[in-house]
């Protein structure tokens, strides 16, 4: 490959990355505004400066785009939640830290609120898919580490992790509807699991 071709390849890669990011950002807003069922690929492309056919260079359909939007948000929030859990020095801190980080993420991002609120049914239907499975697997790994460190009593790690993530998603939905604030949602989830973990162990 010639030296002259290298900058062109770099520019093309940068353009592709920018286009993909623009589509995802537009889709996040569209799915928050209209909901997955109502939104169309055309609605998404209209919110970008791209030609309509460009979409299919990046995503085969609306469903794959929705997954990409969720994955982007999930990756960000999982990192925050996992970091908070790993700093915990007690069972209560372990449980509360993860919930607090998740609820604060939603509360700090109105578009994330709306994305959750308008698409709760679609998101629930995807609960057993890798987008959410990664969060459950990470929580299960953190629970095992916390058990080994003596912070968490012996319990069924897989069931506990799946239950904790499910509660986060459901309370997050309530949070977006204004039925609870971050502190009260965190306290409720923490009390629920503190009692459940002690009894289950």
Short description:
The chain is about 75% helix and about 0% strand. It is mostly helical and about 200 residues long.
Question: What is the residue-averaged pLDDT?
Answer: 90
CATH superfamily: Tetracycline Repressor, domain 2
CATH architecture, please? Orthogonal Bundle
| Count of separate DSSP helical elements | 9
Q: Which word captures the global form?
A: elongated
Judged by helices, strands and strand pairing, the structural class is: mainly alpha
Q: Helicity, in percent? A: over 70%
- Radius of gyration over alpha carbons? 20 Å
Report on this structure:
With 201 residues, this protein is mostly helical. It has one domain: Tetracycline Repressor, domain 2 (Orthogonal Bundle), CATH 1.10.357. It is built from 9 helices and no strands.
Main attributes of the structure:
9 helices; 201 residues; mainly alpha
Task: Chart the SSEs and their pairings.
Elements: H1 5-34, H2 41-46, H3 62-86, H4 91-107, H5 110-118, H6 120-125, H7 130-148, H8 157-176, H9 182-200
């Amino acid at each position: 490959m010639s030296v002259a071709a290298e900058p062109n390849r770099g520019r093309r890669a940068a353009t592709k990355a920018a286009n993909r990011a623009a589509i995802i950002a537009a889709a996040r807003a569209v799915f928050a505004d209209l909901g997955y069922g109502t939104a169309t690929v055309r609605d998404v492309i209209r919110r970008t400066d791209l030609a309509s056919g460009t979409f299919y260079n990046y995503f085969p359909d609306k469903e794959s785009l929705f997954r990409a939007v969720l994955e982007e948000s999930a990756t960000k929030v999982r990192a925050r939640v996992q970091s908070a859990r790993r700093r915990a020095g007690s069972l209560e801190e372990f449980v509360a830290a993860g919930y607090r980080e998740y609820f604060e993420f939603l509360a700090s991002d109105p578009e994330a609120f709306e994305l959750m609120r308008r698409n709760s049914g679609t998101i629930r239907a995807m609960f057993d898919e890798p987008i959410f499975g990664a969060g459950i697997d990470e929580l299960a790994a953190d629970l095992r580490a916390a058990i080994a460190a003596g912070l968490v009593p012996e319990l069924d790690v897989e069931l506990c992790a799946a239950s904790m993530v499910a509660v986060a998603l459901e309370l997050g939905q309530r949070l977006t509807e204004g039925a609870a604030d971050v502190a009260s949602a965190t306290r409720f989830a923490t009390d629920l699991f503190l009692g459940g973990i002690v009894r289950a162990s």
